[in-house]
Amino acid sequence: MAAVPAAAEEQEPLLGSGGDDESRYGDVVETQQHYRSRWRSIRIMYLTMFLSSVGFSIVIMSVWPYLQKIDLTADASFLGWIISSYSLGQMIASPLFGLWSNYRPRREPLVVSIAISVAANCLYAYVHLPTSHNKYYMLVARALVGFGAGNVAVVRSYIAGATSLSERTSAMANTSACQATGFILGPVFQTCFSLIGEKGVTWEIIDLQVNMYTAPVLLGALLGVINIILIFAMFREHQVDDIRQCKSINFEAEESDYVDQDAQGNIDQVAVVATNILFFVILFVFAVFETIATPLTMDMYSWTRKEAVFYNGIILGAIGIESVIVFMVVKVVSKKTGERATLYGGLLIILVGFFILLPWGKKLPNIQWEDIKNNSVPRIIFNEMFTPFWKLQTTQLPSNHTVEPTGCSVVQSWCLYTPLIHLAQYITSDILIGLGYPVCNVMSYTLYSKILGPKPQGVYMGWLTASGSGARILGPVFVSQIYTHLGPRWAFSLICGIIVFSLLLLETVYKRLTAFSVRFLHKLDRTNEVKIKNF
Question: What is the mean predicted confidence (pLDDT) over 150-174?
């Protein structure tokens, strides 16, 4: 799993070597037992972050077909609200759990939040039972799963407080790697469970259906219980005193006071805001990518619900393997090119990925029911899109049909004139987006941690979590509305425009996205030069 820090970081004690049984940095001492306990707790937080992300993505490929199965009144627009409800719950819960952790042991909000997610996953497994309004039960279940995932702020604030300044950047990058890996690998579990089929097996005693739609959330509930057990058994509170570390450095008294004052009040707020905006765009476009995959492939390639879940799961599983490799390589690459240039390159790759996804050519997708009607529905080009409704009567099936409809629904008017997105386009786009997203995700967190420097990062990480949650709220709603009413050409064109805007923003603030320590040293050098001239 990507949830382990770099080997070099864990082989060396927190604050340098101080003997066989303890490590020492100035007057700050850490025993080997304390060091092992601290990193054990940090790894538990890595696992918590990974499982929180899996809870979001493990059903992302099956929500749409499951929604169609349990509630015939649901449409693609409502799908966007269901997917966004997760992030809305997370955005509401993050500051609440963060505030809770400021006054009470962090174990309390962690355990409560995970327990809420476990209960919500169990609710999701039963949303098929009510006789009506099933889509609203699914909406509530996903919102509660997101509320439980509000522990992300607690996780990041703990890791920020439990690592030294030299460890923190890499630890934050590892955390974002765990989060991104969870987003990408969640559909792999869904793919495995798709082999169970829609019918699955039924546990009649408790009215529980275990099928390709409910098995993933039941696995999520089980993993949540294991996470709670690990928190009780292995998690311990740890805090690294950065101020004492700074005071241990051999500065003169005047300069030491300057460091403390600068650490508390000289963060570049323009860089902070810009990084939040860039992070919002990164998560926004990836949320669009995950949300649209299933409806797009069902419309373009006439895949059934089961085929869409299975094939997209395989594709995203391959992308997950690709992303794990990217996570291992990106730190090496960023050391040679720099975090800013690496982030810029990642955004360019994502832009190319969505540009390739634009519809080209003249071939149209299959209209829904067409394969069942022996190709009796005529192809309709753009200038025929206003054909009277009665001329499309051949698209209606008998009321007693039992075959699942496939193809692009004629209810979506754009299906009648929008060209087909070829499978090669779709797969190429997936590969490029799967390459660019982890690069951007890791680099944005790394830059953000360096910009903040030694200042306590809890509040700032809360802002970053809120921006990410907001992106995952607006992304699915945006794409589901635009895609349903205007089609993929408009949806992906607007996404390309948003990415171009983010590239322009990055170019504008490029020189300001520097590490706090670098800015401090430059300012200190200028101060010393002034003192020498005055002397």
Answer: 77
Entry pTM: 0.69
User: For residue range 321-369, what is the model confidence (pLDDT) as tens digits?
Assistant: 787 788 778 877 887 888 889 999 999 999 999 999 999 888 888 887 5
Q: Which two tokens stand for residue 466?
A: 């809120």
Question: How far is residue 50's CA from residue 301's CA, in Å, rounded to a whole number?
Answer: 32
Q: Retrieve residue 238's tokens.
A: 């740890």
User: How many angstroms separate the CA atoms of 463 and 211, rounded?
Assistant: 38
| DSSP letters spanning 391-457 | GGGGGPPPTT--SPP-SB-TTSGGGGTSPP--HHHHHHHHHHHHHHHHHHHHHHHHHHHHHHTTS--
Sign, Cα dihedral of 83, 85, 90, 91: positive
Which tens digits make up the pLDDT trace of 219-230? 888 989 999 999
Q: Mind giving me the DSSP string for 85-139?
A: HHHHHHHHHHHHHHHHHHHS-THHHHHHHHHHHHHHHHHHTTTTSSSS-HHHHHH
Closest of 212, 146, 183, 178 to residue 42, by C-alpha: 178
Within 8 A by CB and 6+ apart from 429, the residues are 353, 354, 356, 357
